[in-house]
Design brief:
The protein contains 8 helices and 4 strands; from the N terminus they run H-E-H-H-H-H-E-H-H-E-E-H. By secondary structure, it is of the alpha/beta class. The mean pLDDT is about 90.
Length: about 240
Amino acid sequence: MKPIGPIIDGTDLITQPLKAATEGKFRKIPMIIGTTTEEARLFVYGAWTRNLTRAEYEAALAIIHPPHFEDIEMFYKPKPDLEDYRDDLCVVCTDFIFTCANRNATRNILANNDRAVYQYVFDHATATHGGWGKDSFCEGHVCHAEELGYIFQNQRIGKPTLEETQLANSMLLYWTNFAYSLEPNIGRFSPVLTWPNYASNTSATMHFLTPKNMIFHDYRSTFCNFWDSVGYEQN
């Protein structure tokens, strides 16, 4: 398992994205990069359809990051005597594979690129249930790709709440402006909340949520500092 880990085929993709970010091997253009707050839930609950024991949780950590699995367990301090450790594993995997790998890539992109990068975290669980089909464990949670239905406004399940409509409209405005000017704040219409570009010294991150969006700083920084210290490669 590797964070942001597509298949390296040597033709369409010649290197691992985190490595490309570190080495500056990418197009030098403005970017929007982001995650949801529960990215790994879709994959953890999809892989384990029953309760995860403490022993199985520890074994999963050893698979995820063999050189440092004991450090991971010490750092995240799993709750004692649970019947199911899937939620604990979701937190670890979301940080390692998505949130912190995303921050690591963003910082390396900025180190090798003088163009702006805009970072976001999506943190809204759709009110109407039924959109996840067989993956019902994502109902009421902010799973992988939850934000896409808001950016493209193509949610097909139920009627969105007023706050969800406002959230979707705000995201559409930022992305439309970015397509128009390569800057999410500049276009035919100006957003209510200015989205600052990310910088390592401010770590400004747009937090998309209801009832209104917010700018966060140093999102999950303690955990991401840990992952930066142990690294994102397992061997």
